[in-house]
Amino acid sequence: MDQASGQSERPQEQPQRPVAGDEAYRRQLEELQQVDFALVELNLYLDTHPTDLQALQQFNQLAQRSRHLRYDFEMRYGPMMNFGHSFSRFPWQWPETPWPWQV
Amino acid sequence: MWIYEKKLQYPVKVSKCDPMMAKFLREQYGGADGELSAALRYLNQRYTIPDRVIGLLTDIGTEEFAHLEMIATMVYKLTKDESAREMMLAGLGAHYANHDKALFYENAAGVPWTAAYIQAKGDPIADLYEDIAAEEKARATYQWLIDMTDDVDLQDSLKFLREREVIHSLRFREAVEIIKADREQKKIF
Amino acid sequence: MMSGQWREWYPYISPLDPCPPMRVKRYVVPPNQFIPFQPMNLPQFPLNEALYRGTLWPALYSAYTPLRGG
């Protein structure tokens, strides 16, 4: 797992290097999965309830939170989306394992 | 346009080495009421459905691809380490002879997927009722799959997928209400 | 197991049936059958539980316990 030497450490950084696919990885991934699941559920709800303001506000708040969690995850483990929706370090990280069905 | 997110919607865990379940899980991979049928059905219907419900069909169709990936994950985990002999003993001999451990869009009986499993009538009521029925059929299939395994972790994922069908069915019912509503009337809910 | 979502019925059993009869059959009627349109402001599960349950809303949750054996 390539770790750029100039990368700043986050306050709650684990002592060991991040290893994609280990226990810490799965825990962090699950936190993101929880938020993103709520977003899918709210998205579908809003598709049939376009005027529910409270739900819309909750959606936007969770979208913000998802962005932050995603940023932290990607800084540690590499890009999560293709076609420019995520950035990559050198060398190109997208093909790195584990892929979702391998975790 | 589709982009891909490199994570499962739900953390799939398979604890029991039971490759025979892989044989049956194919029903939701390439079967008539499975996730591929669902995704392709909704994503195809959305081109001609009334504008107000295009978003819903697009979103549910996209979510079904995420579910397809979850089923693929289960099948992959259950078969990737199996020998030819173990595949045969698990009832996947015919599959192995053709595909080795590769997945394929076929049902539990090995029948390949066909577009005959889906429909698009161009009539919104017909299309949405087809969608509601599809969700109930998928829900039932997940019940039978849950009955067939005693792997609690695998059951968790299947129960998640079953509950998603309950929600999708509700959304399609709401879509029916939306298109039933007279354009001039404000929908009260 | 016999929560509000389950229904039982008793199939006809013939004296000539070859196998031991199943006297009770059960099916589930999930909450979506009673809700034409989801009302606003339904209470929600916390996020970690919502993922596990497969929905944000307890009112829409349908439990399924496997029917094993007879």
Describe what is shown at a glance:
Chain B is an all-alpha fold. Helix content of chain B is 61%, strand content 0%. Chain B is built from 8 helices and no strands.
Describe the 3D structure:
The complex is a heterotrimer of chains A (103), B (189) and C (70). Chain A has 103 residues and is an all-alpha fold. Chain A has a domain at 23-87. Chain A has two helices and no strands. Chain A has helices spanning 23-48, 53-77. In chain A, helix 1 packs antiparallel against helix 2. The longest helix of chain A has 26 residues, at 23-48. Chain A is elongated and about 45 Å long. The model of chain A is unreliable at 1-7 (pLDDT under 50). Chain B is mainly α. Chain B is built from eight helices and no strands. In chain B, helix 4 runs antiparallel to helix 8 (152-180) and helix 7 runs antiparallel to helix 8. Chain B is elongated, with a radius of gyration of 18 Å. In chain B, 47% of the residues are buried. The model of chain B has no long low-confidence stretch (mean pLDDT 96). Chain C is 10% helix and 11% strand. Chain C has 70 residues and is low in regular secondary structure. Chain C has one domain. Chain C is built from one helix and two strands; from the N terminus they run E-E-H. Chain C has one helix at 47-53; strands at residues 6-9, 25-28. The mean pLDDT of chain C is 91. The chains are: A mainly alpha (103), B mainly alpha (189), C little secondary structure (70). Chains A and B meet through helix 1 of A and helix 4 and helix 8 of B.
